[in-house]
Every structure is written in structure tokens, then in C-alpha cells.
Amino acid sequence: MRGAVLHAPGDVRLDQREDPAVVAPTDAVIRTVAACVCGSDLWGYRGVDPVTRPTPMGHEYVGVVEEVGADVELVRPGQFVVGSFFASDNTCPNCLNGYQSNCLHRQPLGAIGCQAEYVRIPLADGTLVATPGTPDDAFIPSLLACSDVMGTGWYAALAAEVGPGKTVAVVGDGAVGLCAVIAARELGAERIVAMSRHASRQRLATEFGATDVVTERGDEGIARIREMTGGIGADAVLECVGTEQAMAQALRSARPGGNVGFVGVPHGVAVDGRELFNSHVALRGGPAPVRAYLPDLVERVLDGRIDPGRVFDLDLPLEQVAEGYRAMDERRAIKALLRP
Ligand SMILES: [Zn+2]
């Protein structure tokens, strides 16, 4: 089969890879219907994360089950499935506590590589969620978004305790930040401030439910949020970038007693303990336990309540995977969908 492989920074290719097969009895193999390029894939593509050997790429996927191992009971060949970027058993104590992305037996799909024609899914019963019947093609982008960015935005909002009546600020206008706006709206936030400088992303944020847009960054951005909130800061701030500047902006934009949910993979982020202590801000983040939210998110998509698939502004055949990376790297595209 063919799959995307990162050979060196800036050099991603569609290579011939070994066909996946059921290895453990809890595995399934899916035929990929759609995959995509994640903002976090760009850390390696840009050389920020070292590339030491040819690396299969991608951790977001929807597909049709081809084959299951002897111990798989909940998913069957022919079913259309969505899964998260960590395989999880969904039965261990961490899973039962709602932290499937910290499953005691978790396996990262990123190490398997989902930008490929077929994918082996470990712990298939715990990882995959089947849709009722085969969904209409129009739903594919939004179902794919649930595999990571929508689930991650959802977690950011829950981690920051977004709820009815709250004022929420979203730092980051990438796919996760935009999905975080959807999550804040669905969870009943009264005011949702999208922090964005790009006209097309501001427009999408507004259509997703943002009530205000702040274009300033850094100290000026923080000052704007305080100005809009009677001088104190937002109840909840969702940090969806992962840089030092974004984290500082998030922490200082939250009110005393407020919450920051951080889901951008931190790169060079240091949090000052004394400043955090004095701020009275609560901080929770990490890789999102997307599996916990998948049944609910899939239902919201199929009911037409949410359409996070609109973050895909580039739709390419898998052959053009290199162009997908280039377009996202150059910020010509928010997120690239790939169809094998
Ligand atoms: Zn588990």
C-alpha cells in the first residue's frame, strides 16, 4: 500500500509501505476513507522536532473496517468507523476516569501512520466508534475532524470548565482553535472571543459561534480581553497553539479563579510558578481524550448540529500529500484533507 513518510524536514513523500495486517487479536485493519495533516505534523516537517529516520505520518482517520482479530467483538468488517489518535482499551482505570489518551495500554496512532491507504488499529474495541450505517459523503470531513481537532477543541473547553453564561477566549485560529469555538458554543458560553489576525479564519470563527474577534496579540491582546471583561479577564481561556507566547497570553487573559485549558503541544513553554500562584488561575491540558467524546461528537455531526469539517479548506488526493504539508506550512491552508 501507499503511505506518507517524512524523510527529512520539508521532505514528505508517498512511499510504498508494507500492507498492514492484524498482529494482536485485539487489532483491526481499516481501509482509510480520509486522513489529514495536523498542525502537530508540522513540528517535524519544519525540523522543530528532529527527524532521525524515515517516519510514517498521520494520526487522524476515518475508514471502513476490513478485518478484525479474534478478540474483537464490538466492531465488524464493513462498518464505517472513527477513532482517536491514541489507541486505548477503554477499560483500564485511566480510561474509566475519562482519560483514554492516558490509557495504561495506550498506543499512538502517529507511530503507525494514518496518512495511508490502510491502517492497523490496535485495541480496536476500545479505540473505534462505528457510525450507524455508512454516512453520506458530505459528513466525511466533519467525522474526520472528530478524530482529533474537534475532540481536542472539546477537551480544551471542558478542561477550562466552559459552561452556560461564561466568557471564553480562544488563543489560536488554527483548526483546533476554530473547533474550540464550536465546543464553547455547544457548551453554552455566552461570549466567545476568537483571537485571530486572519480575515478568513475570523469569518469562520464567527460562523462557528464567536461573538467577538480580537486581532491584537501579546500584552495588547491581554489588555483587550481585560477591557472586554470589566478589567478582570475571561472565565475560561482555551490555549490552542503550544508556544510560550500563546501560553503566556492565555494565562494572563484569564480572570482570578478562571481556568485555562491548554491543548497546543507545548514547545519551549515554561510556566512561572510564582506568577501562576499569584494569578489564582487553574491550568489543565494535555493530549485530548478524544475517545471519551467520540460517540457524542459523531452524533452531533450526523444530527447536523456541528460542522467542524469546514476547517478543511484543502481537499487533496493522497498522491498530493506533499502539497498538503506545503500549503499548511505556508499557512495557505488551515487544514488539508487527504483521500486515498
Ligand atoms: Zn485504558
Q: Can you characterise this structure?
A:
Keywords: Metal-binding, Oxidoreductase, Zinc. It comes from Actinacidiphila reveromycinica. The chain has helices spanning 41-45, 93-96, 124-127, 140-146, 149-159, 175-186, 199-208, 218-228, 244-253, 273-279, 290-302, 321-329; strands at residues 2-8, 11-16, 28-36, 55-56, 61-68, 80-83, 86-87, 107-108, 118-121, 128-130, 167-171, 191-195, 212-214, 234-239, 254-262, 282-285, 314-317, 336-339. The chain is α/β, with parallel strands linked by helices and 340 residues long. The protein folds into 2 domains: 2-148 and 289-339, Quinone Oxidoreductase, Chain A, domain 1 (Alpha-Beta Complex), CATH 3.90.180.10; 150-285, NAD(P)-binding Rossmann-like Domain (Rossmann fold), CATH 3.40.50. Strands 3, 5, 6, 9, 10, 17 and 18 form a 7-stranded mixed sheet that branches. Strands 13-12-11-14-15-16 form a 6-stranded parallel sheet, sandwiched between helices. Strands 2-1-4 form a 3-stranded antiparallel sheet, covered by helices on one side. Strand 1 and strand 2 form a beta hairpin. Helix 5 crosses helix 11. The protein is globular. The N and C termini lie close together (10 Å). It binds zinc ion. Zinc ion (ZN) is lined by residues 88-89, 91-92, 94-95, 103-105.
Keywords:
single chain; alpha/beta; Quinone Oxidoreductase, Chain A, domain 1; Rossmann fold; six-stranded parallel sheet; globular; binds zinc ion; oxidoreductase activity; ER; GroES-like_sf; zinc
Q: What's the CATH class label of the largest domain? A: Alpha Beta
Q: What distance separates the N and C termini?
A: 10 Å
Number of strands: 18
CATH homology group of the largest domain: Medium-chain alcohol dehydrogenases, catalytic domain
Do you know the CATH topology of the largest domain? Quinone Oxidoreductase, Chain A, domain 1
**Major sheet size, sense and barrel closure:** 7 strands, mixed
CATH architecture of the largest domain: Alpha-Beta Complex
* Ligands, deduplicated: zinc ion
